[in-house]
Amino acid sequence: MSSQRAPTADLGELDPARSRHQGRRSAVTLIDGLAVVGTADGDLMAFDVSSDAGPPRPRWQSDTDGEPSVVSAVPFDGGVVVGERSARGEIRCHDADGDLRWRYETRTDLGEAQQETRFLLPFVASLTTNGDRCYAAARRYERRTDDDGTDLRHFESVVYAFAPDGTIDWTYRTDGSPISLDADDGRVAVAYNRCPGDHQHGLVVLDADDGDPRWMWDPGTDGQRRVGDVALLDDGAVVSSHGDYCGYRLESDGRERWSVPLATPTDVDGDTVYAYPNHVHATEAGAVFVTGNTYPEEGRETDARHPSEHTAIGVSPDGDRRWDAPVGGFASGLGTDGSLLAVPGAQNFRDRDADDHALRLFDIADGPLDTLDTDGVVTAAAVADGTAVAVEEPVVYHDEGRERGAYRLHRVEIESETVRSRR
User: Is 7 exposed, middle or buried (CB count within 10 Å of its CB: 0-12, 13-18, 19+)?
Assistant: First the structure.
């Protein structure tokens, strides 16, 4: 596996990330040779990345009002759909030239933010498409106090099915926290990472025609934590479980075919620690799970590191663990295209090692392919047709006090047997 630098394009000014995670502030997707970046101030910027040489070339920019962050983006019907974290929690569809087709404010359904605080704003957590439908999962978080004075978490959430003209074909509402969607011709899978209320299912598989539940699954563990991500297969699904830190292969009715421990509680120098498996990508060739930060069973601070934190783990179709490799830090999402994965490495808030900042490329079956080193943290990525793009954000770690990196887009060409076999 090589390590390389790549052509870049400037995305403007951005306050640097800090030691603690700020959550998603940017998004990127690929549309027929264009990289469309959703920025932290709500704008869209499109760059031509079809050339094999030279930096990405600016094509157009679509500005917005207010101070939202575009946190999700997917190609749809020849254009792009983006989702915001903002007071309005807007979902917008733009043509490939940047013109606005339609928009929808999820606060209509979720309600107004309890306070103008980032993590309390309506949040379009996930977008996915299949055929002539775009599916969106939006949520709003707030704190409540019960009659005994106990501080409670509460979510309002909606899954939407949008037609190309912006018509809402159906919705599915819960008081759980959706984190990820996947869809095929007949199903829409919704992963819920927290279930503090009446909704008590980490995975719900909906009928794509009308939004009615087909089946549900849950790791069956105590507490609010449930599922981190889901990937549909023709005969079932693969999920990453926040409840017990394992990966599962499920049959088409929700029965468990196999499970594999990923970052389960482990004693490290007398401290029991674990890490959440936050992401999964799966095909018939197998699955890749990506884990996040180390946490102790007691409290929040620890000097120990789970041996499988910040790790991509490749698993065979039968559930055998066949490779693993570091991803450098917390990954806020994956870029995927068939068997290819692009994993952006953002902050490692415990170690804060800038040498780990990178975009890492993997193949489901073969493991690591390439590494793109960056100065700042990589917060969003996309991959298609042998091209990967990534958004870098500047960062200042509190114990170093030095600003590293810049707000910019990277492009890298993937040279692998997997890509060449498709051309």
Answer: middle
In tens, the pLDDT along 220-277 reads 999 999 999 999 999 999 999 999 999 999 999 999 999 999 999 999 999 999 999 9
139, 107 Cβ separation under 8 angstroms:
no
Q: Where residue 147 falls among pLDDT bands split at 50, 70, 90?
A: confident
pTM score: 0.95
Q: Write out 99-121 in H/E/C secondary structure.
A: CEEEEEECHHHHCCCCCCCHHHC
Say which residue the tokens 């890509």 belong to.
419
- Count of CA atoms in the C-beta half-sphere (13 A) of 419: 19
Give the C-alpha separation, 363 to 237, whole Å. 19
Asked if the model's pLDDT at residue 398 lies above 50, the reply is: yes
Q: Which helix (H) or strand (E) holds 420?
A: helix 417-420
- Give the span between the Cα atoms of 84 and 114, in whole angstroms: 17
CA distances from 38 to 164, 197, 313 (A): 20, 32, 29
